[in-house]
User: Which sequence fits this backbone?
């Protein structure tokens, strides 16, 4: 268990921005967002603050009200399938990433949005437990973030 | 070989709405089987959507994307009758491409 | 360098933490039940059952079995090859087989008689797993999807259907097993639930309609499409009854009882459930 991240969680009331950014793979030089093709292993592996800081190259993020969660429930009946939709009204949105704070790996999915494609994507993710969900948006080289708590219930038994 | 995707592409105003269902286990690599052995991770890592040869969306996924993945997105410039093509590649290198006609 | 970054990050973390803790983020949520309903609604758009439907249509049309024949001449009750609306009239008495059949037993019959499979092969592993996909589930998904929106219209005119209905009704109320349980223990009163699952009261029209017309369903907890035979099988397991055999007369009788009670309601499956 990583003491650094624990402490950060405790003091910050959430994961730190560095963790989020590193997890989204946007801070790492030569990330797959820069070079089309390969899968960004480092981004999907990021689990702790230390790892994140190591992977950092710079950048600052701002909480934004221009990012909204669409068709994303407050409570998911089953963590195996949790619908998450992200809509960004920030001009020149180039990519959108979905991160789940309490999952073994934070980054769930990352989408590149070429010009002409609307900045709205929906998918479904697995969540091991109730958690904050983060939507990161990269627009004009600046990073923006919004969050939403999704509670996961166990649902009924068996059938 | 993997089963075909189910792709719907619908023109709404000047925007093409694409909805995709893919057939894939999306194993996390954390689950154990009945014998106590870890089931190896097996998941779609990248998805690319093209319209008239131009990429309209590309995505990278981890194992946290749900089994039998769902994806929806919208792009401008599509016309009825055009083709939208989707390709996924998983961490075993398996690949699947399917297409749909914008309706 | 790293130290400087850490300081900058700490400051951002506080700002971010402040925003995340904002009560406005989630204080306005409705009741849990409303939120669960929103979750269920969100899943409706894009049901992976469609993947089973596509595979089932392919299986129906493609030649297969020892006779290398397709199932397109299979008579589901509305004439050979007629799939549209067929499920809404099942179970039904089939003169060629001399007995009442539900869809899943009829498919076994067609695979034996048209494709030349052995009875044992056609009945093997009707419920799939990630390792082994079930043809029964795929075919059932596609055929039932072709009855979407069609009003349930099961007829008891044939005496064998009336008999199946009566037997099914008796099974529904039959108490037994280590827990002295019956189907009716959970499904004959309004407002019962298991944790978050509302249990339909199958003894009243609206409950029977809601219960029956939403199977088969893609079960998100399993990532599989499950048929009505599976539903009965698992209900029996939960009651700690002996396993109800796939396609057995008892399973068809119970299906007949429940399907007839749902008459009049538009068929609404394959659905998606938790």
Assistant:
């Amino acid at each position: 268990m990583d003491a650094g991240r624990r402490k950060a969680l405790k003091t910050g009331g959430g994961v730190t921005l560095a963790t989020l950014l590193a997890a989204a793979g946007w801070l790492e030089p030569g990330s797959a967002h820069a070079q089309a093709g390969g899968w960004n292993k480092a981004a999907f592996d990021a689990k702790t603050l230390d790892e994140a800081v190591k992977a950092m190259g710079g950048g600052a993020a701002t909480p934004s009200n221009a990012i909204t969660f669409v068709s994303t429930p407050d409570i998911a009946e089953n963590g195996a399938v949790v619908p998450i939709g992200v809509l960004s009204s920030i001009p020149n949105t180039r990519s959108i990433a979905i991160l789940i704070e309490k999952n073994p790996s934070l980054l769930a999915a990352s989408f590149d949005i070429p010009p002409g494609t609307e900045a709205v994507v929906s998918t479904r993710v697995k969540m091991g437990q109730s958690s904050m969900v983060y939507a990161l948006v990269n627009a004009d080289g600046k990073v923006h973030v919004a969050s939403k708590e999704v509670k996961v219930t166990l649902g009924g038994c068996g059938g | 070989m993997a089963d075909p995707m189910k792709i719907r592409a619908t023109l709404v105003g000047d925007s093409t709405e694409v909805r995709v269902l893919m057939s894939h286990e999306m194993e996390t690599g954390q689950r154990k089987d009945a014998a106590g052995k870890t089931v190896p991770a097996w998941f779609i890592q990248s998805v690319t959507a093209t319209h008239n040869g131009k990429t309209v969306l590309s995505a990278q996924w981890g194992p946290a994307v749900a089994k039998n993945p769902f994806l929806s997105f919208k792009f401008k410039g599509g016309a009825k009758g055009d083709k939208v093509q989707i390709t996924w590649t998983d961490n075993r290198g398996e690949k699947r491409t399917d297409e749909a006609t914008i309706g | 360098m790293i130290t400087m970054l850490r300081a900058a990050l700490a400051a951002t973390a506080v700002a971010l933490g402040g925003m995340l803790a904002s009560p406005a983020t989630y204080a306005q949520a409705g009741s849990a039940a409303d939120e669960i309903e929103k979750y269920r609604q969100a899943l409706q758009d894009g049901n992976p059952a469609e993947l089973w439907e596509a595979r089932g249509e392919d299986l129906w049309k493609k030649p297969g079995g020892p006779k290398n024949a397709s199932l397109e001449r299979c008579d589901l009750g509305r004439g050979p090859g007629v799939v549209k609306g067929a499920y809404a009239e099942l179970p039904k008495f089939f003169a060629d087989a001399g007995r009442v059949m539900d869809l899943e037993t009829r498919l076994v019959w067609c695979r034996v008689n048209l494709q030349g499979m052995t009875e044992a092969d056609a009945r093997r592993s009707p419920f799939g797993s990630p390792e082994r996909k079930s043809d029964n589930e795929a075919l059932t998904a596609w055929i039932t999807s072709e009855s979407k929106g069609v009003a349930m219209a099961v007829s008891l005119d044939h005496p064998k259907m009336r008999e199946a209905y009566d037997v099914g009704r008796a099974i529904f109320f039959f108490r037994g097993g280590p827990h002295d349980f019956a189907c009716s223990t959970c499904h004959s009163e309004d407002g019962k639930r298991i944790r978050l699952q509302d249990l339909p009261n199958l003894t009243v029209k609206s409950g029977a309609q809601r219960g029956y017309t939403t199977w088969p369903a893609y079960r998100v907890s399993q990532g599989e499409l499950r048929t009505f035979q599976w539903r009965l099988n698992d209900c029996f397991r939960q009651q700690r009854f002996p396993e109800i055999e796939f396609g057995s007369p008892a399973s068809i009788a119970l299906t007949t009882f429940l399907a007839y009670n749902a008459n009049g309601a538009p068929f609404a499956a394959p659905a998606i459930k938790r």
